Amino acid sequence: MDRSHHAAWQRLSAALLFAAVAVFALTAGTLQFTRIDLDPIAMPLSTYLRGPGGFWLRDAYYLMAASLAAFAFAGYRAMKRASRSALVSALFMIAALALPIVAYTVLFEHTPQENLARLVHGLAAQTTFLCLVMGMLLWSSRWQRSASTRMRRTGVVLAWLAFVQMWVLALWKDLPPGLTQKLLIVLILMWLGWAAMQLRHDIRRG
């Protein structure tokens, strides 16, 4: 891929990532206030995938999956050659493949396949969180373009906060699952917004 195609791909990936973060945050945030039948502190975000507004949230999941797949390639090229990691790209690609499964399996509620779908849904959700957070940690530490130290530190801090929150969600069962899961999602969205900024920074530097 020549330089012009590389820049165009990064520009597209950054725009798609920004759009996915904005759409996801707006859709999920709106549903927290409009779905008065659900307790936003107790109910995880997956509960909002069905019922009123569920269609829009599922579409936000699919858009996010597409943006993660694009970032898997663009993020790889944004690193210095010596810092590139196929593992990092693979982690984001796996998350991109698992996220639509999270959204789609809720549609099997009240069907003969409900138990299997619930199992697959849980595994896909855990896979998405694990791959995203580990990919965030690795990409943040490897991104070595000439951004400021403060800018790089922001991504590392967000990634580590998400890592800690992921284990809080997994291990601290006494906390409301909706609150702990949504805090993790907010940290991931913030990091993805930061990553999109890094792609744009890379484009500006040529």
Can you put this structure into words, describing what you see?
It is built from six helices and no strands. The protein is about 75% helix and about 0% strand. The chain has a single domain, classed as Rhopdopsin 7-helix transmembrane proteins (Up-down Bundle), CATH 1.20.1070.
Record the SSE blueprint.
Elements: H1 3-34, H2 54-78, H3 86-105, H4 114-142, H5 149-171, H6 177-204
Short synopsis of the structure:
The chain is mostly helical.
Q: Which architecture does the CATH hierarchy give at level 2?
A: Up-down Bundle
**Secondary structure tally, helices:** 6
What number is the mean pLDDT?
88
Unreliable stretches: none
Count of the separate structural domains: 1
Question: Quick one: overall form?
Answer: globular
**Rounded to an integer, what's the Rg over CA atoms?**
17 Å
Summing up helix and strand content along with how strands pair, one would put the structural category as mainly alpha
The sequence of SSEs as H and E is HHHHHH
Largest sheet: none
The percentage of residues in β strands lies in under 5%
CATH topology: Rhopdopsin 7-helix transmembrane proteins
Question: Helicity, in percent?
Answer: over 70%
**Through-space gap between termini:** 15 Å
CATH class identity: Mainly Alpha
Count the E strands: 0
